[in-house]
Every structure is written in structure tokens, then in C-alpha cells.
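Observation: inputs received (chain + flavin-adenine dinucleotide).
Thought: call the complex predictor directly.
Action: predict_structure
Action Input:
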Amino acid sequence: MLPASVDVVVIGAGNAAFCAALAAAESGVSVLVLERAPEDESGGNSRFTAGAFRCVYDGVDDLKALMPDLTEEEIKNTDFGTYTEEKFFDDMGRVTEYRTDPDLCEVLVTRSKETMWWMQSKGIRFAPIYGRQAFKVDGKFKFWGGLTVESWGGGPGLVEGLTKAAKKNGVTVAYEARAMSLIADDEGVKGVRIRHGGKTADVEAKCVVLAAGGFQANAEWRTRYLGPGWDLAKIRGTRFNTGDGIRMALDIGAMPTGNWSGCHAVGWDRNAPEFGDLTVGDNFQKHSYPFSIMLNANGERFVDEGADFRNYTYAKYGRVILMQPGQFAWQIFDKKTLHLQRDEYRIKRVTKVRADTLEDLVGKLEDVDAAKALATIKAYNAAVKKDLPFNPNVKDGRGTVGLAIPKSNWANTIDEPPFEAFAVTCGVTFTFGGLKIDTEGRVLDTDAHVIPGLYAAGELVGGLFYFNYPGGTGLMAGAVFGKVAGTTAGRRAAQLPR
Ligand SMILES: Cc1cc2nc3c(=O)[nH]c(=O)nc-3n(C[C@H](O)[C@H](O)[C@H](O)COP(=O)(O)OP(=O)(O)OC[C@H]3O[C@@H](n4cnc5c(N)ncnc54)[C@H](O)[C@@H]3O)c2cc1C
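Observation:
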């Protein structure tokens, strides 16, 4: 049975929602989390992640405070560098082509560190991302690309930890409880209409925090807003993020904002299912492409695979792959870089071919013009600058010369067997367009006035990301704005009479 009345309702049960619920509970108010999914599929996209968080740290002492399990041995053998506020601002500006909302971006960057420590105080544990974000060169690991910390146990560990913390702090969590609409009048939001156990019911609330994710799992909205062809993309995560939270808010006059035609989309196994599979998590992705070349159905390269570290290109390359004939590409590797392939290349459910000659390999690339593919690989091999050393930990400048589409870094000839190739299509992570909020997490209406009692956090907030995205920012933004929105909502609810 759900309560008929509560101080704060949080819609969703992912990272942003639980951070909001935990922050609201700090004001001593009653908090109810509504999760549309059944418990075994709950946790939203957050549960599908590796748990990578992009946060500011000013040196190894900050990391030690956040990850007390870090050993002296690890510290000695690792160059963690720093990730300063300046670097985070630069990354957000550069990858969004300076379109990110400056006020929201400032909140994200300047509160990232304190929010990580706050999560730690709630019982969430973190660890360095050795496997994916640092390569060992000359006996020492070096972290690159501003992404150093992940939650213990990845996304599943994060959701489990947050759920436990929420329950410990008195938050009630209801599963298979789908918010359908907001109950609101001229004074603002007063509650939520839900479907629970096949029945419609109203829950009265002083404040409502929307944290129900983007609209990526809604094929009709994808086509309507992202454009033709996006109905054909796969969804990397939960099937439950169909834009409900955004729709409910727009229905009562909230302002849409941000990059509504944009989304985070990556190279994803061509034969992956339509939606994410929790037993595979994020492993259908194929993110070692900077060490490969990618060929389309015409046997041609179509993008600079080595333009930047994967953290700064992967989220926009899904779109580029979707635009290729047949919506797929093959990533080609030879022996020299097989050891650099991420763990996701070694899963069972992978679309992979292997051969000992290039002639055999191109013949095995399904739906590809083999003769053209062979010619492209040979032309690429001839164009590789061989005088610069290859180094995966830095942008090594070892590129190509004279190709119409260059490869700017990490170019190695593809001429040493065995050869491997992996087929990818476009996998959508989350949509960029959403609701307009202020720096207190309050939802604004189309006249830019605060809608009393309505707050938002996570994927359904618009304005932070345009065109592209720096890896690890989704969880960080969800946590920062979840905490902000929950704190504001909790304080307001504590002040309002019963
Ligand atoms: C495969 C994959 C890997 C990723 N890896 C990373 C990573 O390592 N680092 C990173 O920063 N980001 C990563 N991301 C992005 C990240 O998952 C999201 O940015 C972040 O989790 C969004 O959090 P959220 O709380 O806003 O949404 P979600 O975690 O998706 O939560 C939304 C919740 O709302 C619920 N819901 C939807 N509609 C309703 C309704 N009507 N009523 C009630 N509940 C509803 C859903 O069931 C879900 O529980 C990854 C995403 C995917 C798919």
C-alpha cells in the first residue's frame, strides 16, 4: 500500500532520484520514491553503467580521501595527475561547442568534489578505474581523459548502495509504481497520479522531484525530436525511460530547453537486443576504436577514429555510425593493438570475425564491399606516420598523411596477423533535451517563473549537453543536481504546514 500523502515524492529510482531522496531526507521530511520498473529491472540507466564518475580532484590526496582503500603500492605505480575545475570547465565547453548552460555547468563542476564526498558519507564506495582509463607504459599506469573514479561494483553496486542508504534514512521505495501525471493548480504542484498494481491512485505531496530519465526508450519521440532514422537505433540501457517525467512537466507548463535533437550515442554491437540487457551491462559497447580503423558498407573510412581520447569522441560517434549505409560499421584491429582492447571485446555475445590474412578478413566482413575494404586498409597503411612512437596514454600525434579522412592519433599499420573485426551499430545512451531548471533544481515554466513544488535532476534536465559529452558526466550531473533538487525540496517541504 502506498501512502496517500507524503512530504516529498521522487519519481524514478536511478542515481539522480536516490541522491535527491537522500538529500530531501536530511530535512527530516517523509520521502517516497516511485519506480516504474519491477524491482529486478529497477535502477534505470544508472544500473547499466560502469559507475564512472567525472569529478574534480586536485591531486592524489583528494583521491585517497575518497578511496581510502587505495594502497601505497598503487599510488607509487600510478600517475593519477589532477582533474581541476579549470580542466572540467574546459572539457564541458569544448565538447559542447560552448553551448552548455554556464550556470548549470558551474554548479556541476564546482560541486562535483563535495558531492562525491557526500555520497561517500552515505555509504557509497569508490575505486580507481584501472582497467579502462589507464594503460601501463614503462611499468607505470597513467590516467588519461579526466576520468579516474568509479563506484564499487559498477552501476549495479551503485544502485544497490543507494537503495540501501535510502532505506536506512527512512525513504520508502515503491516498485511497479508508474507516475502518470502531476496534480497541480495555480499555486503549484500538489501531488502525483500513479498507476500501481493495475490501479490508478493519487499521492498528495508538498514537493515532487522528477528524476525519471530521458526519452531515449521511446521510438516515436526519438524520431520526432532526434530525426528520421533514430527509430532504428538500439537503446543501451533501460526500456523504462520513455520521457514520462518530461511529458508530465510540459503538460503543466514547464519550459523545454537544451539540445532536443541531440543525444549521447555510441558504437554498440550490431546484433545487440533492442534495449539493454542487465546481464551484459555496458559490454555491448566497443570503445577501443581509437586503436582501430572503422569501415562502412562501402568499405570506406568515414570518421577520424583517433581525433581525441575515447572519453571525448565516443558519445558523438554513434550518430556518425547511424548515418552510414545500413547503419553499421566494422572496427578493424591487427595483432599490435589486440592487447589494448577493453574487456567488452572478450564477451560471448559479440559480433566478431578473425583471420590470418587481410584478404580473408575482408571476405568475412558481412555486408561490406570486400575489394574496396582491402584497398582502403592498404591506402591507410601507406599513410601512417611511422616516425613518431605510439603511446596510448597521450595524444601521441602518430597520425596519417594525405588521407581525405585523417586518423590524428594512435595510427598503426594493420598488417600483422591475427586480424580481428567487430561489427557495431548505433546505441543510444540518453537524450540531451529536457526541462529548464535553475541552480536550486527548481523547474521553470515557459515564462521562466519557478513552478512551486516541482524539481528535476538527471537525464531529464536540459541545457548541460549539446552535440557531445565528456565520459562520466551523466552520473556526476545526476548526483550533483539530485542532491541540489532534493535539498531544496526537502527544505521547502519542512517549512510548509501539514
Ligand atoms: C550502458 C550505459 C553505460 C553508461 N555508463 C556511464 C558511466 O560509466 N558513467 C556515467 O556518468 N554515465 C554513464 N551512463 C549514463 C548514465 O547512465 C546516465 O546519465 C545516468 O544514469 C542517468 O541517471 P538518472 O537517474 O537521470 O536516470 P536513470 O538512472 O535512468 O533513472 C531513471 C528512473 O526513472 C524511472 N522511471 C521512468 N519513468 C517513470 C515513471 N513514469 N514513473 C516512475 N519511474 C519512472 C526508470 O525506471 C528509472 O529507474 C551510461 C548509460 C548506459 C545506458
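Thought: report the result.
Final Answer: The two ends are 21 Å apart (CA to CA). The CA atoms of residues 181 and 247 lie 8 Å apart.
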